[in-house]
Amino acid sequence: MSIVPFVGGIAGAAYFVVRDGLTLDFMDGRSIGKHVMGLRVARLDGRAMDIETSARRNWMWGIGAISGALAYIPIFGWILIPFVALLGLGIGLYEGYRVLSSEDGRRWGDEMAQTKVLKQKS
User: Fold this and answer.
1) For the segment 86-117, what is each residue's pLDDT rounded down to a tens digit?
2) Residues 42 and 118 sit within 8 Å (Cβ to Cβ)
3) Burial class (CB in 10 A: 0-12, 13-18, 19+), 43
4) Alpha-carbon span 66 to 12, nearest angstrom
5) Model confidence at 1: pLDDT above 60
6) By the 8 A CB rule, do 28 and 109 touch?
7) CA distance 15 to 55
8) Are 21 and 55 in contact (CB under 8 A)?
9) Kind and range of the H or E element at 68?
10) What is the DSSP letter of 4?
11) CB-based contacts of 29: which residues, under 8 Å, 6+ apart?
12) pTM value?
């Protein structure tokens, strides 16, 4: 997606945010990576994943993707890139820390959205 200037960055960020809530048949309610790894995101209340829950779970991944789109906004965008990139990096490191340090392996986004990642039954 990043081949298309600006729009590709925005589309990539949007995919990162809503990917777990997409109901496209070929995705079966999972991101491409989760589909390949045999994983599924589930809500703790047992209801089906939706776009809103996916956005609460994944909003932080959109921040890093947006930094690429900022490169196409002269001066103001260029000034913001380092701050947005550092924010994205900091959140990513914190998410990794949470996965490794929490008892149930849930990251910050999972707690915010009340979700967990499960191994998909074959």
Assistant:
1) 999 999 999 999 999 999 999 999 999 999 99
2) yes
3) middle
4) 8
5) no
6) no
7) 10
8) yes
9) helix 51-70
10) S
11) 20, 21, 22, 23, 40, 48, 49
12) 0.81
